[in-house]
Amino acid sequence: MDNYGEFTQSIFNLKDSVSELRAIWKDQTAPSYEAIHENFERFSFNTWQQNLVAVEMHELVKENYSESEFDQMLDKLSARLAEL
Amino acid sequence: MASIKTELSALERFASHTDDTYDVIMSIADQLIFKAQRLYFDVESDLQKIRIQINRAEIIYDEASSKATTYEYQMQEYYAEMQSIEREIDYILSRTKTVTVTDSDGNSTTKTVPDVDEYALSAARRRLEEATNNYNHYRKKYELARSLANDASATVTYFKEMEDAVASALDTIQECMYEMKKYLGLMQEEAEYNAMELNALIAKINEYLASKPIFFPSRLQSEDFSAKLKK
Q: Which residues are within 8 A (CB) of B215 and not within 5 positions of it... i.e. 6 or more apart?
């Protein structure tokens, strides 16, 4: 370093630059990332909720409908028809 | 200098980490949609089975109703025959004849007495019994057929209620799939936007650094610059 004053100025410039970079980081990233994360959380939550509803619907059908039970009912009716 | 490089590298690590995280979340969302599709196909299969069973129940109802109509007609035929035979018997029993009776004094008087044709009466009663038996036979069959038709009708109604419920569940699952795909699309948009913003920011920082000779002096790396300072 030939000139101490130039070096000092460079150090000041560096400090300013770091502050500026941090300001850019804070201003440009933090709010948008928060929003993006919030959206992601909301979308993930909604997706999971929709999944739960789909699973619940499927379970309801399985709890209330039995193919074999319906077939048995039909078999009994068919047997009665055959006896007529 | 080290601080700026640290910031930049942290930012790049964050970008990479965030992308990885989003990839995992979207992969899970994709799996959830795939799972919902499996549930949809399973319920859709149940719905098709129910529709086949409804069709089977309707066929039983139609056949039972048809038989009930046939038996009802035969029942009415035998009932009409019974009534006819009963009128015939009434007629046989109502027939009279006039006879002349002479007493011991030689006086003759005329009297009206029953003139039942026992043979015809017996034959008519046999036919009445036969017609009654047939009537009862077909009435029983009619009642069984009608009862079966009613039960088949109730079964069709019950099956159709189940069909409506299952169809409604299927619609809901389809709506859920639609919503999940919508959210997955939105997440992809967010992730793409996020990556674009990050890359733009990294580019901006790199550009900023490049514009400051103090960070990247020409033909010197930062390490060299630091080494020079120590001298």
A: A14, A17, B1, B4, B209, B222
Domain range enclosing A55: 22-83
- Structural domain containing residue B15: 2-211
Tens of each residue's pLDDT in chain B, 231 residues: 455 666 667 666 666 766 677 777 788 888 889 999 999 999 999 999 999 999 999 999 999 999 999 999 999 999 999 999 999 999 999 999 898 888 888 888 888 888 889 999 999 999 999 999 999 999 999 999 999 999 999 999 999 999 999 999 999 999 999 998 988 888 888 778 777 877 777 777 777 777 766 555 544 444 444 444 333
Instruction: State if pTM tops 0.90.
Output: no
- Looking at this predicted complex, what is its ipTM? 0.72
**What is the domain-level CATH number for residue B131?**
1.10.287
Which residues 6+ apart lie within 8 Å of A3 measured at CB? none
User: Best residue in A71, A77, A80, A83 to probe B by mutation, most B CBs within 10 Å?
Assistant: A77
> Chain B residues with CB inside 8 Å of A67's CB?
46, 49, 53
- Judging contacts by C-beta atoms under 8 Å, the chain A residues touching residue B197 are 28-29, 32
Domain for residue B200, yes or no? yes
Inter-chain residue contact B145 with A29, CB threshold 8 Å: no
How many domains does one find in chain A?
Answer: 1
Least Cα separation, residue A14 to chain B (angstroms): 7
Angle of CA points B210, B206, B203, to nearest 5°:
135
